[in-house]
Amino acid sequence: MSYSSMAKSELCRIRPESECCQVAEAYGLLLYAKLLSERHDSYSTDNKAIASLICECAASVCGVYADVLTYPKSSGGTHRFAVKIPNAEQKKMICARFAGAGNVLANECCLNAFLRGAFLVCGTVTEPQKDYHLEFAAGSQRRCEILAGVMQRVGIHSHQLQRNDRWVLYVKDADGIINLMNRMGAHYAAQNLEQTRTVRDWRNNANRRVNCDQANIDRTLSASEQQCAAIRKLTEKRGFEGIPPELREIAALRLENPEMSLRELSESLSEPITRSGVNHRLKKLMELAEETQ
Ligand SMILES: [Zn+2]
């Protein structure tokens, strides 16, 4: 089962307690199923529970008894389910119930129920392992703006875009999606996303650490390359005997071990000195090489 379906099956089981929230949920369902628009009198879905929920809400809130039609999918073995408003009279009753529906969303408690209804009929959420992306295929610009207004009221940052004439509202950040899931009542899905995020963050940090270690190694190598070049130049121009006695051991050690860090070099000397002592001697060798023509 996809993450989206999992969240939706969790949401389908919720029934709002107060009447105002039941109306708000019905509004979200019917508005985003486009059943409040002039041109549509049916809504189809792969999810039978969602189709049944729309019928239940249309009956309890609008007094309209819609049918659920089942028909085979053109591709694949499963079925699709269509909610069909039986006639123009019933369609009018639904539209009249929500004419000038501004006050449906007046109470703060109703916003979550409205979002749940909208998400069930036009929302999708990407597998959190792949990406953090939740979107509502709102359709018209007006429907998109109603949703954007509600998102703003509940403090979730959302974006709008137009895809082939249709308006889409989306949430891109994990925090926003977790917040929305919890508000709608999909607590299990929210928890699941949170766990996935923890693992993803941990993995990203681990990768960053590896990259950082690699950068340190690269830095050691390029410093070491310069030191080796300086030591080679000195031995060519002056001979090994031309290098001051106290610098000879470190010069030979560096040439033989270009990959060693300062610490490793310091520990490999016959008489160990500090890291900064090693650094000092290597600098001295570089200076000498520079002075040597
Ligand atoms: Zn309410």
What does this structure look like?
There is one protein chain. The protein is an alpha+beta fold and 293 residues long. Helix content is 60%, strand content 12%. The protein has 11 helices and 7 strands. The protein has a 4-stranded antiparallel sheet with strand order 4-5-7-6. The chain is rod-shaped. Zinc ion (ZN) is lined by residues 18, 20-21, 24, 107, 109-110.
Please summarize what this structure is.
The protein has 293 residues and is α+β, with helices and mostly antiparallel strands.
Q: Given the helix and strand composition, which structural class is it?
A: alpha+beta
CATH superfamily of the largest domain: Homing endonucleases
Number of beta strands: 7
Question: Count of helices?
Answer: 11
* Strand percentage: 5-15%
Strand arrangement, major sheet: 4-5-7-6
Low-confidence stretches: none
Helix content: 55-70%
H/E series:
HHEHEEHHEEHEEHHHHH
How does the SSE layout of this entry go?
Elements lengths: L2 H10 L6 H14 L9 E4 L2 H15 L4 E6 L6 E6 L3 H10 L10 H15 E3 L8 E6 L1 H13 L5 E5 L2 E6 L2 H11 L2 H52 L6 H12 L5 H7 L6 H17 L2
Antiparallel strand pairs: 1-3, 2-3, 4-5, 5-7, 6-7
The protein binds zinc ion.
Zinc ion (ZN) binds next to helix 2 and helix 5.
Using brief descriptors, characterize the structure shown:
four-stranded antiparallel sheet, Endonuclease I-creI, 60% helix, binds zinc ion, three-stranded antiparallel sheet
